[in-house]
Amino acid sequence: MLSQLLDITIIGGGPAGLYTAFYAGLRGMKVRIIEYQDKLGGKVNLYPEKIVWDIGGIAPKPAGEIVDDMITQGLTFEPEVHLSEKVMNITKKEEQLFEVATDQNTYLSKSVIIAIGSGIISPMKLAIEGAERYEVANLHYVVPSLSRFKDRRVLISGGGNAAVDWAYAIAPFAAHVSILCRKDDFKGHEEMVRKLDDRGVEKIMSHSIHSLQAEGDAIESVIIQHCRTREPREIAVDDVIINHGFHMESDLLDQCDIKLERKDNFYIKGHADSSTQVPGVYAVGDILSHDSKVQLMAGCFHDAANAANLAKTYIDPTASEAGTVSSHNEVFKEKNEELLSNML
Ligand SMILES: Cc1cc2nc3c(=O)[nH]c(=O)nc-3n(C[C@H](O)[C@H](O)[C@H](O)COP(=O)(O)OP(=O)(O)OC[C@H]3O[C@@H](n4cnc5c(N)ncnc54)[C@H](O)[C@@H]3O)c2cc1C
């Protein structure tokens, strides 16, 4: 199915893609976002419970709340949003005509903004048949919030820094925390591993999860097994958290028709203004590399405004190079009236 011709197709719905959608809307362009995951927010969704301090002008707060705000802002101008679609190819048909092919559709736009971050990241799932049914209840691959585990018995499987950090952070709230590691030692920082003792975390070495005992959709206990002796043990749980690492997929740029200069076989080697070697194609956020790149969410916002401005003048060379500041921008007039009336 061929789509409507819009001004911009944004590939990736993380911080960079969302702010691009906002800023392009501010500049009066019609955009679509295509995102592989079933929700917007990018890899910030992997650490929703962590407190973020380093976004300019935003007081420290959990990353999950920042994602909510970024989504609200990104949807201000009602972009088309296509979730659970994987972009497979980008083709330049002619100036101001690009085709972006996903595993389900083909989309047309006058320009393309690549905001794919570190590619498609998915947690390594527990290799137990049927385990996915417990994800609705108490099997987690990401810690949604620390308060979720208040007074609960939590088993964490994983030996890396993230698993150790989670055990340390959850322990003060939980009734009991055990951390299970296949190896004889944790990979996590030695000092953090030691601190687990101060918080009463039970460390279970050289064991792995063998099977799950459940009532309905909720796991009630986990059978673990010693990796060498195979001796089993049953642990009663209220929640199970798995941190076995992440699977990363990032072959879009290797296989797509447009050829972009790369750095370290991964990043797009672009410019500080977010332009690439292909007119009409811009790169924003973590995927963009240049000498003065800021690898923070703050850097994504800067890239996004630049890319939207360049897309605007690529599509309409008579347009002004930069947008009007939001405080004095007519596009917000009606929205401001609504906001102000709600404040009174
Ligand atoms: C553990 C951790 C902690 C962090 N803490 C901070 C912090 O405190 N402060 C800070 O400023 N930054 C922090 N960062 C960095 C911050 O998360 C990134 O800079 C930011 O997420 C980059 O946004 P992005 O939109 O460029 O990429 P991403 O967030 O990676 O989003 C890219 C999106 O593109 C999608 N995508 C990729 N390929 C395709 C495809 N082919 N088709 C469709 N969709 C695709 C992905 O699914 C993803 O949703 C942290 C990062 C990590 C990993």
TrEMBL record:
Binding site for FAD: 35, 43, 47, 87, 121, 286, 327
Catalytic reaction list: 2 reduced [2Fe-2S]-[ferredoxin] + NADP(+) + H(+) = 2 oxidized [2Fe-2S]-[ferredoxin] + NADPH
Keyword line: FAD, Flavoprotein, NADP, Oxidoreductase
Listed InterPro entries: FAD/NAD-bd_sf, FAD/NAD-binding_dom, Fd--NADP_Rdtase_type_2, Ferredoxin-NADP_redctase_2
MF GO annotations: ferredoxin-NADP+ reductase activity; flavin adenine dinucleotide binding; NADP binding
Family: Belongs to the ferredoxin--NADP reductase type 2 family.
Subunit structure: Homodimer.
Protein name from the UniProt record: Ferredoxin--NADP reductase
Biological source species: Macrococcus brunensis
